[in-house]
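Q: I'm building a small set of examples for a reading group on sequence design. Run inverse folding on the following structure and report the sequence directly after it, with nothing in between.
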């Protein structure tokens, strides 16, 4: 807030109007929000809030007072929703200050109160994609230094999904950051000072919390919120359990505190209706194939590498053939957390095999899911009281599909299908409940009346009859009065302000009988009432009011009954999602000719005739060519463990690397894969170091990012991991880069033994095959023609014969002169280098750095190159020479 406005705001209390005094109290209690202050039909914003809102929402900024010291802008209350969502999407928090009494009945100024605080993590965004979850997260560090644990809790208010996890040990921080980077919550809560001196929004966090930049809103809460004494009782009371053990949180206090703090926040921001948050699930990452935030981004699993690019490059897009929103969300979550449980993977593959081989049953299954809407989100809206009659009928329409879906699922007898069908609750009672209570085609709003079916409540039926007969009586009155007065255009009408009245045209006004009482004069008409009409009016309006009350009561009772069954509905929704996911896998496998991979415990990674699922699709769709299948043979235990891939730019190296990771992910998700054959020993974690990362935008150099990522790989990969390194060392001087790449390959080969795919432009590295027994050279092939090179995209054994960088540059249109000169320079270099590299590859490698890459002499060469010889005096020249010699001698 600027000084000027804060001065105006804090002006003498006495000089403020009573409403502005209320405003100030509300604003003081919610200083970090934009305050929407209800005044009649508008929400008004004042002072700095008005300036911000006018800018963000493109509203006209006006002033409340004559002196123009109070900036103001406003939005009509009925259109507030869209404005609120726009602010939330930009990361603002908004407090809603409502009028708490009817202005007509208020004595003095209307009482106002902040009824709800909306934040990105607590407000439901209707524009939210069905496949995305809207997580509010909280993170905490609990325990002492010796037994520190980091807890994370995640709540998706739109579906009621609530889960928590925790990490301990020396890499707890890094794992926490990874998890948050992968989940990408829209809002993160944390204890301002609890993070052991690490400020989440500050510099120190940069290193350990690489994924957190993407989180729009970070909300610090006071430290005591994250204490066991405060958070755990909250958690226990919400779930009405005596101990955390009942929630599966025994021994996981940090996770419990994170969850409790999250509930605290829900209360503090006055979020009502948490009935659908009826369970908390403790989850562990160890049972899944671990993917860090960097790999999720690099492999474009769910989002394109560069925001704003088309979604079509993502694996999620390529694999999304789910029929329901629940299925889509599960697919997304599954791609981010593939399984590492052999039995589970196998059970899924078996289920997929059965359904993919049976077109008729599979289609029946998928057909049974059309019409299934977002059960979880409908439930969420019901709990948050934002569901109207139409949402309830949508819910019924969805429930109505369930028995059919169950029957279609039962058609398959693979164990996974059976487990899903056994105990599947098709919620028929709930369907009956809605179908017998709510009228067909109810109005949008409860207030419109006619929502509840006849025959449910005797009084309601009577009242409806009364108002119906009342209306008939009014029609009769109209007819009678027309005859009595002889005015054929006489009408009996109703409006909200005047109630029922008789309307005649001006010209006829003189002819009305004496018992007509004038009510209103319009330009062309006069309106009257009569005692009889007044009588009916009271009867009808009272009947309508009363029936409205009864309808509301019955509707609320129905809502409560449905919410009581929230747990059952959520369990069914979970099963529907799984059925949908397996159906989707089966459908794609059949449609695209994918095959069942063999997943086992060993160290192999072998596929034959494999394709990159996304690139293949894109080539097919654009009609620009066919994907050339390729193969991989790796074995962490015996046989080749490192594949070194060389070849020209654009040759398909990156595609080959990514394809290997995507196929592993698909297989461990339990899906078939685009390959003729695939055999896979379970992978515990995929590491990627591919291309430039968007971290560059955050001010770290490309090289620094690359080395940080490489360090993480070398420090934590195991011999069950899959490591992909693409063009490592590119970001620095050639010799530095080559040396680092060389040493990295050696380390991976000799020490770690992880299955590794290493794509490089350093041809020198291909000589490593002579020394490292389990390293194999591969090359992407090209054909040289008189017109230049043609990419064949096939991968074959052996090192690339030469670099085609200059050829590719020619294709890109570099001027002929530059190309010719580059060829000359290349020849000189190649001659000089080949000898040195051979020496380095021989066994006396420790001397490599000095003989082959002499950074020192490189520096001297650079110095000499920079000197302006003509501008140098003889003395300066001598000094320089002496200096260079000193440096050489060291
Ligand atoms: N097996 C294949 N079959 C058909 N097209 C392919 C195949 N592999 C790659 N391509 C196509 O070739 C293009 C270049 O592939 P990719 O980016 O993998 O090359 P690269 O060797 O990594 O290049 P650079 O070294 O410049 O990064 C891709 O856009 C893809 O469409």
């Amino acid at each position: 807030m600027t000084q000027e406005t804060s001065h105006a705001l804090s002006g003498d209390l006495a000089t403020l109007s009573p409403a502005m005094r209320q405003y100030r109290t509300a604003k003081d209690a919610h200083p970090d929000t934009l305050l929407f202050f209800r005044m009649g039909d508008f929400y008004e914003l004042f002072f700095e809030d008005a300036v911000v809102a006018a800018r963000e929402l493109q509203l006209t900024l006006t002033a409340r007072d004559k002196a123009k010291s109070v900036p103001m802008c406003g939005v009509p209350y009925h259109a507030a929703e869209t404005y609120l969502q726009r602010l939330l999407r930009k990361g603002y928090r908004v407090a809603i200050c409502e009028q708490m009494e009817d202005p007509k009945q208020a004595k003095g100024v209307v009482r106002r109160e902040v009824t709800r605080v909306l934040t990105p993590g607590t407000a439901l965004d209707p524009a939210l994609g069905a496949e995305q979850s809207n997580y509010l997260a909280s993170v905490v560090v609990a325990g002492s230094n010796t037994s520190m644990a980091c807890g994370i809790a995640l709540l998706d208010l739109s579906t009621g999904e609530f889960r928590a996890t925790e990490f301990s040990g020396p890499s707890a921080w890094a794992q926490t950051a990874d998890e948050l980077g992968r989940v990408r919550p829209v809002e993160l809560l944390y204890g301002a000072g609890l993070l052991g001196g690490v400020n989440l929004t500050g510099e120190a966090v940069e290193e350990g919390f690489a994924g957190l930049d993407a989180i729009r809103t970070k909300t610090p809460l006071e430290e005591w919120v994250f204490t066991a004494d405060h958070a755990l009782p909250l958690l226990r009371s919400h779930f009405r359990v005596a101990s955390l053990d009942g929630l599966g949180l025994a021994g996981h206090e940090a996770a419990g505190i994170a969850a409790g703090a999250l509930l605290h926040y829900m209360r503090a921001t006055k979020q009502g209706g948490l009935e659908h948050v009826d369970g908390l699930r403790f989850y562990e990452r160890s049972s899944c194939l671990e993917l860090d935030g960097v790999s999720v981004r690099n492999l474009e699993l769910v989002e394109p590498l560069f925001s704003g690019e088309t979604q079509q490059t993502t694996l999620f897009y390529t694999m999304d053939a789910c029929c329901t929103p629940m299925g889509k969300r599960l697919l997304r979550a599954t791609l981010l957390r593939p399984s590492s449980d052999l039995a589970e993977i196998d059970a899924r593959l078996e289920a997929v095999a059965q359904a993919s081989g049976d077109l008729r049953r599979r289609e029946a299954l998928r057909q049974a899911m059309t019409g299934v809407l977002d059960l979880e989100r409908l439930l969420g809206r019901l709990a948050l009281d934002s569901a109207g009659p139409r949402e309830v009928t949508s819910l019924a329409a969805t429930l109505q599909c369930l028995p059919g879906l169950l029957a279609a699922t039962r058609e398959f007898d693979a164990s996974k299908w059976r487990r899903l069908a056994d105990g599947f609750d098709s919620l028929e009672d709930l369907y009956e409940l809605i179908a017998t209570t709510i009228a067909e085609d109810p109005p949008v709003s409860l207030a419109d009346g006619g929502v509840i079916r006849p025959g449910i409540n005797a009084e309601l039926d009577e009242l409806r009859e009364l108002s119906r007969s009342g209306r008939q009586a009014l029609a009769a009155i109209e007819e009678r009065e027309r005859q009595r007065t002889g005015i054929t255009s006489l009408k009996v009408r109703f409006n909200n302000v005047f109630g029922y009245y008789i309307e005649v045209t001006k010209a006829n006004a003189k002819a009305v009988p004496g018992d007509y009482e004038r009510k209103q004069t319009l330009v062309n008409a006069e309106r009257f009432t009569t005692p009889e009409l007044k009588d009916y009016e009271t009867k009808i309006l009272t009947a309508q009011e009363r029936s409205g009350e009864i309808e509301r009561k019955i509707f609320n009772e129905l809502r409560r009954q449905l919410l009581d069954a929230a747990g059952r509905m959520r369990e069914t929704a979970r099963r529907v999602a799984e059925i949908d996911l397996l159906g989707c896998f089966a459908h794609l496998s059949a449609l695209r000719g994918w095959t069942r991979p063999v997943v086992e415990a060993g160290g192999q990674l072998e596929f034959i005739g494999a394709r990159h699922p996304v690139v293949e699709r894109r080539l097919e769709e654009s009609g620009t060519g066919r994907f050339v299948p390729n193969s991989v043979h790796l074995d962490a235990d015996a046989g080749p463990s490192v594949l070194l891939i060389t070849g020209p730019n654009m040759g398909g190296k990156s595609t080959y690397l990514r394809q290997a990771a995507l196929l592993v992910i698909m297989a461990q998700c339990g899906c078939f894969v685009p390959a003729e054959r695939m055999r896979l020993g379970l992978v515990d974690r995929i590491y990627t170091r591919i291309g430039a990362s968007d971290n560059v935008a955050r001010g770290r150099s490309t090289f620094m990012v690359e080395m940080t990522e490489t360090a993480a790989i070398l420090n934590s990969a195991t011999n069950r991991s899959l490591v992909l390194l693409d063009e490592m060392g590119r970001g620095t001087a050639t010799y530095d880069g080559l040396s680092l790449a060389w040493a990295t390959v050696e380390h991976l080969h000799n020490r770690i033994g992880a299955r590794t795919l290493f794509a490089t432009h350093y041809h020198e590295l291909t000589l490593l095959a002579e020394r490292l027994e389990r390293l194999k050279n591969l090359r992407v092939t090209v054909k040289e023609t008189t017109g230049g090179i043609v990419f064949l995209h096939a991968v074959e054994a052996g090192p690339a014969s030469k670099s085609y960088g200059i050829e590719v540059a020619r294709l890109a249109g570099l001027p002929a002169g530059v190309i010719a000169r580059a060829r000359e320079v290349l020849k000189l270099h190649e001659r000089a280098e080949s000898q040195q590299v051979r020496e380095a590859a021989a066994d006396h490698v420790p001397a490599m750095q000095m003989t082959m890459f002499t950074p020192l002499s490189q520096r001297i060469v650079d110095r000499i190159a920079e000197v302006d010889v003509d501008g140098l005096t003889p003395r300066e020249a001598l000094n320089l020479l002496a200096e260079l010699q000193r440096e050489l001698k060291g």
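The radius of gyration is 36 Å.
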